[in-house]
Amino acid sequence: MHEDSLGVLEVQTTGGAGSSRLVVVGAGTMGQGLAEVAARRGIEVLLLERDVEALKDALESMAERLDREIERWALTESEKRGILSRIHGSVESSDIGDQPLILEAIPERLDLKHNLLRHLESVAANDAVFITNTSTLSITELASVLKRPGRVIGMHFPSAVHKVKVVELVRGLKTTDETFQAALGLAKRLERTAIEVFESPGYVTTRLLMPLVNEAVQVLMEGVASADDIDTAMRLGYEMPQGPLTMADRMGLDTVLSWMETLFRDLGDAKYRPCPLLRMLVRAGHLGVKTGQGFFCYDEDGRSIPDSGYVNSVVRHK
């Protein structure tokens, strides 16, 4: 971690009987979402980030997102204060102490996660459970660098973590039943329905979803239908809350491409070969909501701008 420290921010813990503790490592989009979901359910959260400015930005971003909920009458000011009072930011891994549950939400790179897990094992309690939030990486391989690989389990929250009510609990080869039960307990506290998954590339949700998204991109590239009409067909025809292209934009097209490449490499099946149009958009920097442009365009609050998609302007119907 960083030599400069914010320490634990000037927020008092609620403590008391029945309080829970969770460490979330990584204050990016997923880390922020997990910290907020936990805090909403009364769990005390230590949010760790390497960089002071990145941590400050993350905490400000969370506050701004809650302010937008207040504007929509979906949250009260007192509820916002309660949520933020349970999130404590730090850049010092020594603050982990004897925390029982450590959930990492750093970028989807094996080398980064290996280095982090080694470090966390060196500073955490011997009985701490390490939860990795990964969509495609091998839990067994992630745990292989640790002295206690049985303490590692995957916990995959499909996007968006605020809305989706299911979580995949992914066992590695050496994951113990005790570790599984600890993760299951957290899932229940977060009010998520947990499914047990035995390790396989892409697990269940990513493995099933990626071919659907990829085929939607292929249909668009071939000019069979517009992006709007493809998403409308799937929303109304199959009662999906959002179409596959919108879903991809919200996950991040670079993330979708990375998942497709991992599945194609590990499973060797042509159905996981990324569509060329997906690669083109990623190369152009059109990554979806986070850049304001993907298959559709978005305003600064992430709302879709009607009839303004980049793809619709360059992909022609036959």
Give a written overview of the molecule:
The chain is of the alpha/beta class and 318 residues long. The protein has 2 domains: 20-198, NAD(P)-binding Rossmann-like Domain (Rossmann fold); 206-314, N-(1-d-carboxylethyl)-l-norvaline Dehydrogenase, domain 2, CATH 1.10.1040.10. Helices cover 43% and strands 14% of the residues. The protein contains 12 helices and 10 strands. Strand 4, helix 4 and strand 5 form a beta-alpha-beta unit.
Topology, please?
Elements: E1 20-25, H1 29-40, E2 43-48, H2 52-71, H3 77-85, E3 87-90, E4 101-104, H4 110-123, E5 129-132, H5 139-143, E6 152-156, E7 166-171, H6 177-189, E8 193-198, H7 205-221, H8 227-238, H9 244-251, H10 253-267, H11 276-283, E9 297-298, E10 304-305, H12 310-314
Parallel strand pairs: 1-2, 1-4, 2-3, 4-5, 5-6, 7-8
Antiparallel strand pairs: 6-7, 9-10
Helix pairs in contact: 7-9, 7-10
Tell me the series of helices and strands, N- to C-terminal.
EHEHHEEHEHEEHEHHHHHEEH
CATH domain topology of the largest domain: Rossmann fold
- Gyration radius, rounded: 20 Å
What share of residues are in beta strands? 5-15%
Describe, in short, the structure shown.
With 318 residues, the chain is an alpha/beta fold.
